[in-house]
Amino acid sequence: MIRTFPFPADLAVGGVGMQIGPMGTDHRWHVDAPLHRVHRIDFHVVMLFIDGPVRHMIDFAEYEATAGDLLWIRPGQVHRFSRESEYRGTVLTMQPGFLPRATVEAAGLYRYDLPPLLHPDPAQLAALHAAFDQLRREYEDTETLPLSLHTAVLRHSLTACLLRLAHLAASSAETSRQHADSTFTRFRDAVERGFPTNHSVSAYADALGYSRRTLVRAVRAATGETPKGFIDKRVVLEAKRLLAHTDLPIGRVGVAVGFPDAANFTKFFHLHTGQTPVAFRAELR
């Protein structure tokens, strides 16, 4: 069973519901926390990197962060640290319930649809570094104010940080969506030109200059299908058109959609329609 670790309140300065400080390989959520094995946490973690690359698994997807990137891990998400990566930068953790509900909703703290890996531009990064530095100073200063005021100031400073992060996450999601739309459009057009002879996802990815993973994400976001499913659907549609509107022999129809062997075409068509090409044509006539 994947273990879940609680917020380490005993390690927080003054016992408040947050922590902020430098990242280190010796950091522990709990004495028994297996950082290099899959585990789950019930609090927020934001890592702002000053070096990289760092590979980190979140919900079974691998992310690679470098200097200036952030990773935002939300409560309940499964993740794992990389033994091969050196984690350098600032880490912010926050216990659910530390901020009021209005702030939680405004900052989208539980928007699991938003990307965990964020790439701020230079201006955004400078503002985030300043906000993190201010928050860290307030967190470590336990002498200037009584605990109640100290906690209130921390909440306000943390809110400012999280609102900046929320804006960045939402903007990243929109940019990703637009990129996915563009990627899918290019893929769709390439399939329209090439499906009679090319049924290979890797070949389309190489021709378009995308990784297979990028293509899978873009096509799934646009259609809910895999690239292979999209290609196959287009091939089936063309085969149906030829079977319905021409008198071409079955073997010639197969050749026209990329199957030189009639038996392979029949098997493919039956797999995707539940009918043989002959039965499909007979039903229409």
UniProtKB/TrEMBL annotation:
Pfam families: AraC_binding (PF02311), HTH_18 (PF12833). Residues 185-283 form the HTH araC/xylS-type domain. The keyword Cell inner membrane does not apply. InterPro entries: AraC-bd, Homeodomain-like_sf, HTH-like, HTH_AraC, RmlC-like_jellyroll. It comes from the Bacteria. Keywords: DNA-binding, Transcription, Transcription regulation. This is Transcriptional regulator. It comes from Streptomyces canarius.
